[in-house]
Amino acid sequence: MLKIRLQRIGRKNEPAFRLVVTDSKNGPQSGKFLEILGSYTVKSNTVVLKRERITHWISNGAQVSDTAHNMLVKEGLVEGRAKNVLSRKSPTVARKELKKK
After folding, report:
1. Nearest-angstrom CA–CA distance, 7 and 39
2. Which CATH number, 3.40.190.290, 3.30.420.270, 3.20.10.10, 3.30.1320.10, labels domain 2-75?
3. Would you kindly state where each structural domain of the chain is located, as residue ranges?
4. What is the chain's pLDDT, residue by residue, as a tens digit (101 residues)?
5. What whole-number distance in Å separates Cα of residue 58 and Cα of residue 4?
């Protein structure tokens, strides 16, 4: 299955990301990808996207990761709501509730 996701590049303490199309079995740091679809620089908050190629890959069945989906929604490429990308752990329980049990 093909995925559109972010791949970290750049130096230490200067994060930058590529938006790439890759096989879902490849790790994010493997360096293997089919095509570069854009870039995102964190410090300057600049996003550069190849809009027609992104719509091409999505129409051909590539799945979009949650963070990449939120970026595409913000840029107006994909319609919909932003997805929650925070950890999916169970909610924490207050200590008082633990002591009652």
Report:
1. 9
2. 3.30.1320.10
3. 2-75
4. 999 999 999 899 999 999 999 988 887 778 789 999 999 999 999 999 999 999 999 999 999 999 999 999 999 998 889 888 887 665 555 555 555 55
5. 8
What tokens does 8 get? Answer: 């970290």
Residue-wise DSSP of 14-61: EEEEEEEEEETTS-TTS---SEEEEEEETTTTEEEE-HHHHHHHHHTT
The pTM of the full predicted model, rounded to 2 decimals, is 0.78
